[in-house]
Write a structure and sequence with these properties.
Layout: E1 2-11, H1 12-22, H2 24-30, H3 33-40, H4 46-64, H5 72-75, E2 80-83, E3 89-92, E4 101-110, E5 114-123
Antiparallel strand pairs: 1-5, 2-3, 4-5
């Protein structure tokens, strides 16, 4: 068994600027349609939710980069951050077809100016 971890922090303003300046091109390169829908429906906190998901994707990439053949620009929208029914975030990595995953854990947090994510993955 091996454990890989990743962590990332990002300024919410950077994500807001990217969305406002690049629009759909940025959104579609980084986020899935369901993530875009979720974030757009969070009212006045939408940029914090986008930033938290961006941080999660970066943290996940850091943890799994040795297990995949794609570079970062090719995988961000293949990593999907979803919420379980109890609200806990989790990563959907099915599109990456990574083998031998035993378990994963994802934690997100955000405040007005920053978002952070921590990810751990256990391989068999």
């Amino acid at each position: 068994m091996k454990i890989r971890t990743g962590i990332d922090i990002i300024e919410v303003d950077r994500i807001q600027e990217a969305i406002e300046n690049l629009g759909e091109r940025f959104l579609n390169k980084v986020y899935t349609k369901s993530e875009i829908n979720y974030c757009n429906n969070t009212k006045n906190m939408k940029y914090q939710h986008y930033a938290a998901r961006f941080a999660a994707k970066e943290a996940i990439f850091k943890a799994i980069s040795n297990e995949i053949a794609l570079n970062e620009g090719d995988i961000l929208n293949k990593i999907e951050i979803i919420n379980r029914q109890d609200g806990k975030p989790m990563a959907n990595l099915e599109a990456l077809q990574i083998k031998n995953i035993e378990s994963m854990d994802l934690s997100l947090s955000h405040i007005k100016k920053y978002a952070v994510a921590s990810f751990s993955i256990l391989f068999k």
